[in-house]
Amino acid sequence: MTFVVGEQCIKCKHTDCVEVCPVDCFYEGPNFLVIHPDECIDCALCEPECPVDAIYSEDELPEDQLVFLELNAELAEIWPNITEMKGAAEDAEEWAHKPNKLALLER
Questions:
Q1: pTM, rounded to two decimals
Q2: Which distant-in-sequence residues (6+ apart) come within 8 Å of 90 by Cβ?
Q3: Which residue in 53, 58, 62, 74 is deepest, having the highest Cβ count within 10 Å?
Q4: φ and ψ of 30, to 5 deg
Q5: Which residues pair with residue 4 across a beta bridge?
Q6: Cα distance from N-terminal residue to C-terminal residue, the chain
Q7: What digits encode the pLDDT tens for the residues 37-74?
Q8: Which domains does the chain have, with CATH numbers?
Q9: 55, 4 contact by CB (below 8 A)
Q10: Tell me: the pLDDT tens digits for 79-92?
Q11: What Rg, from alpha-carbon coordinates, does the chain have?
Q12: What is the 3-state secondary structure (H, E, C) of the chain?
C-alpha cells in the first residue's frame, strides 16, 4: 500500500510532508508533489503534516481522487526527488481549498 498526494496540493505545494518522510519518496513538479508508490513504506508520517489535507492512504482515497493514484506513480518516474522542506507556493493560501484544480497541474 502507498500514500497518495491528491488535488489539494496543486498550486499549494507545501513540503512539510517531505521533512518527515524517512525514505525520501516525494518527487517535485512545478506546482505539485507526488509520492512514489514503490518507495513509500506506508509509515503514515506525512499525512498529518499536510496543512491542506492533500495526502491520503491508498485505501482511503476518495473516489473523486482516484486519478491521483496513477498520476503519483507516473510523475514520480520523471520528476526529481525532493528531500528537504522548501517554502510553499507564494499564493498557496489562495489556492489551498479551491476545488477542480486538476487542469492546473503542470507537468
A1: 0.96
A2: none
A3: 58
A4: -60, -35
A5: 56
A6: 25
A7: 999 999 999 999 999 999 999 999 999 999 999 999 99
A8: 3-87 (3.30.70.20)
A9: yes
A10: 999 999 999 999 99
A11: 12
A12: CCEEECHHHCCCCCCHHHHHCCCCCEEECCCCEEECCCCCCCCCCCHHHCCCCCEEEHHHCCHHHCHHHHHHHHHHCCCCECCCCCCCCCCHHHHCCCCCCHHHCCC
CB 85 within 8 A of CB 33: no
Tell me the three cell numbers of residue 78: 520523471
CA 59 to chain centre: 16
Compute the distance between CA of residue 102 and CA of residue 82 in angstroms, rounded to an integer: 21
Backbone angles phi, psi at 101, to 5 degrees: -100, 0
Q: Which three cell numbers stand for residue 65?
A: 481522487
Q: C-alpha cell of 33? A: 508533489
